[in-house]
Design a protein that fits this description.
The protein is built from 7 helices and 6 strands. The protein is an alpha/beta fold. It has one domain (3-179): Rossmann fold (3-Layer(aba) Sandwich), CATH 3.40.50. The strands form 2 sheets. The chain has a 4-stranded parallel sheet with strand order 2-1-3-4.
């Protein structure tokens, strides 16, 4: 399967698994978490009344966070396989033009992730942010290569080093939790808290024999397990 067909399969899979309401809710939680982390760990406010923040989504897929970002006074733009090769092509944006770059589940699929990091550094404004989500090799090494398109695993330490070596400052790593209290994202055992204290995923549905079973019986404080 080539990259274009893989892209189509990803979109088809998400459409089959999630209803429109579920997809919208997931997007809201994703964006809310980005805002929360920037505010609480960088003292950075996004939703400003008189200024739209320019957000670039790399590996945007079906652009599922677009609506939620635009609702929070952001100007959205996204690129994926159908637009350009993020491993080697130059981003069409000019230098110092983007406030925030978001990349959800892309960097691990690149053989040459350094190119994406350097291009992100080039187009970001001074004081801008790059927000990356990728599997934590330390917690997910048994599953990582089950996905054929996974090429480059990262640990918290290696992603920090990759960013710092390419002139990013004040780099922080967090567990991939959504809408949790600040203490879950803090401290030397933050990844262990996400892995061991939350036994269930954040999904409200359990797929069993291709049927969706509501999981509302699971308390919210037990959901959000992250690798």
């Amino acid at each position: 399967m080539d990259k274009q067909n893989y892209y189509k399969e990803l979109l088809k899979s998400r459409k089959e698994i999630l209803s429109l309401d579920e997809k919208t809710e997931l997007a809201k939680r994703e964006v809310k978490t980005i805002f929360f982390l920037l505010k609480n760990f960088y003292n950075y406010e996004i939703a400003l009344e008189n200024k739209k923040m320019k957000v670039l989504d790399l590996g945007c897929g079906d652009q599922f966070i677009k609506e939620s970002l635009e609702a929070n006074n952001c100007e959205y733009k996204g690129y994926d396989i159908q637009d350009l090769d993020l491993e080697k092509d130059k981003l069409p944006d000019s230098e110092d033009s983007i406030d925030i770059i978001v990349s959800l589940g892309l960097i691990e699929a690149l053989k040459n992730p350094t190119h994406l990091i350097k291009e992100s550094q080039r187009v970001l404004k001074k004081g801008g942010f790059l927000y990356i989500i990728t599997p934590n090799w330390k917690k997910d090494y048994k599953n990582f290569f089950n996905n054929y398109y996974h090429k480059t695993p990262f640990t918290p330490e290696s992603i920090e080093s990759a960013l710092k070596l390419n002139n990013f400052n004040d780099v922080k790593t967090f567990p991939g939790l959504r809408c949790k209290p600040k203490w879950y994202y803090s401290g030397p055992f933050r990844f262990e808290k996400a892995y061991y204290l939350l036994p269930f995923s954040g999904n409200n549905f359990l797929n069993y024999n291709q049927k969706k079973i509501k999981r509302n019986w699971i308390p919210e404080f037990l959901k959000g397990h992250s690798r």
